[in-house]
Hints:
This protein is of the alpha+beta class and 377 residues long. It is 48% helix and 14% strand. The longest helix is centred in the last third of the chain and has 23 residues, at 246-268. It is globular.
Amino acid sequence: MAVExxxxxxxxxxxxxxxxxxxxxxxxxxxxxxxxxxxxxxxHPEVHLExxxxxxxxxxxxxxCDTVPQAIGELSHDLACIREAAxxxxxxxxxxxxxxxxDFREQPISAKMSYAEIINRTQYWGQQMLIWGVHVxxxxxxxxxxxxxINALMTRFPHMLALTAxxxxxxxxxxxxxxxxxxxxxxxxxxxxxxxxxxxxxxxDYMHDQDISGVISxxxxxxxxxxxxxxxxxxxxxxxxxxxxxRELSALxxxxxxxxxxxxxxxxxxxxxxxxxxxxxxxxxxxAARYGLEALVITSxxxxxxxxxxxxxxxxxxxxxxxxxxxCRAELHLISEILERGAGYQRQRRIFQRTGSWEEVIxxxxxxxxxxxxxxx
Length: 377
């Protein structure tokens, strides 16, 4: 199977943000995505929205952006258009990694053959996908750089996930996890951690095998947590829970942009990029999903460990000069704000522990979407 990588001469950005629609009375999910997308398309044809796996989900998709502020500005405009349509239809816009009590058996999937095929193939496990994420694309100049950078990014997997983790609730329970979405999504046979390919040719060989075996014809693509997006000439980072607000989303996008460019420039300088053993990467993913910002993560091939919050604080300092150059220093420094205030899972858990009500968690999360920033509870 030929997979031609459409090289990107500059480290451009693209962001995809999956958001849900909820009933303001029941706080349950409502399948109104098609109506909202049609309303927005008629009134604001410049806005790019996509139908997603579930009919309760709208995906915001930016164009090709040069800077984080440009991407966030576009998402802010698109979100305002969605909220206008949602208000007209009597629903609220909501962002989180998973819904804390909605019954997946009652949520219809979108009318798309590939989605129906996924359900037919995966059955019970695929039906549970009441989950939402953020995907960040960064342009890469040559395919030979793709897998060294992806392997290096995997050493920062827990940092990206802990920062955005906001899915502690599931089926009416506090799961004890910061990101239950992460655990649910990896149930799909084509999802989860990518293999640590050593070259672009190894990736081509792998994709060739998946094509012959029928995997790609069943699913359309491989749904790895980080993967090449050959059509766009990007690396696509799919680690994060969907944030409840633009402010925290901008911190994530800035971190991803800076990390990719940082590793790309290490290649320019002839420096060796970091890589961890696959078992360490898998353990770090679990620790971040379980403990979020309170995770102790493995940081070296010698199995050294450090607190992820401390690592994030030092990453901000290390990447600040590059962020200044890329025009996202203010957004990168919002990481410090998240470390001080707490991530989305912590805000949700505090409300649930205080009130015993997931409905109040939904209300607060919708409020954050409207205010475009986290709200203290």
